[in-house]
Amino acid sequence: MSESETGGTKMNKDVIYQNVKTTPIRVKVILVDGTKIEGHFHQPHSLRLTDMLNRNTQDSPFLAVTDANIVFADGEHAEYKFFTVNRAMILCCFPVEEEIVRGF
User: Cβ of 27: how many Cβ atoms within 10 Å?
Assistant: First the structure.
């Protein structure tokens, strides 16, 4: 693209496709339809998990999930390396490493 095609400014591809450093966090997610997901969210260093979930859904309605095991509401099981989940469908989400397991 010439500068005349971009409104007189040269577009910098490095700025448009900027890498965001994230930390994978293993989570369990329950969707409103009863589907259960265990996989990794990729948390930006500047955000807490609650901040990621509470972002404006209109600007960013989907969250990326990697290395996921899914049990759908009908009992069907699937595994995916990558998919996205609509954050408006999330009923509950918690980090696996903070799970408390107690014997009853």
Answer: 24
- Work out the burial of residue 51: count CB atoms within 10 Å of its CB; fewer than 13 is exposed, 13-18 middle, 19 or more buried: exposed
Please name which of 58, 102, 83 lies closest in space to residue 29, comparing C-alpha atoms: 83
* Residue given tokens 């609650």 in the structure block: 50
Domain boundaries, the chain: 21-98
Amino acid identity, residue 21? K
Give dist(CA 88, CA 7) in Å, integer. Answer: 37
In tens digits, the chain (104 residues) has pLDDT values of 454 555 555 555 555 556 768 888 999 999 999 999 999 998 887 888 888 888 766 678 898 999 999 999 999 999 999 999 999 999 999 998 866 666 66
Q: In CATH, what is the architecture of 21-98?
A: Roll (2.30)
What does the DSSP 8-state code read for residue 91? E
Strand partners for 80: 68
